[in-house]
Amino acid sequence: MVDDKTKRDFRDREDEDYEVRHFANKVGLTVQQVRELIKQHGNDRKTLEREAEKLRG
């Protein structure tokens, strides 16, 4: 289903379960690790990808 762009709220999109799972699979981390990265670094995707790379070594 396509998101209705006219209905907006203040939730953080990175906290959506399916997006966190997708990102975790993409970068090779667990969902919990990704949630911790989001808490520490915010939801900027480039920052999260950089920090995920550091975690993976």
Helix-strand topology string: HHH
Which bin fits the share of residues in helices?
55-70%
Quick one: how many beta strands?
Answer: 0
Shape: elongated
| Structural class estimated from helices and strands | mainly alpha
Q: How many H/I helical runs?
A: 3
Mean pLDDT score: 84
Strand content: under 5%
Radius of gyration from the alpha-carbon trace, in angstroms: 12 Å
| Oligomer classification | single chain
Low-confidence segments: none
Number of domains: 1
The largest sheet, given as strand count, sense and whether it forms a barrel, is: none
Cα distance, first to last residue?
Answer: 36 Å
Please describe the structure with a list of short key phrases separated by commas or semicolons:
57 residues; mainly alpha
Describe this structure in words.
The protein has three helices and no strands. It has one domain (14-56). The model has no long low-confidence stretch (mean pLDDT 84). The longest helix has 12 residues, at 45-56. By secondary structure, it is an all-alpha fold. Helix 1 crosses helix 2 and helix 2 crosses helix 3 (45-56). The termini are far apart. The chain has helices spanning 17-27, 31-41, 45-56. 60% of the residues lie in helices and 0% in strands. The chain is elongated and about 40 Å long.
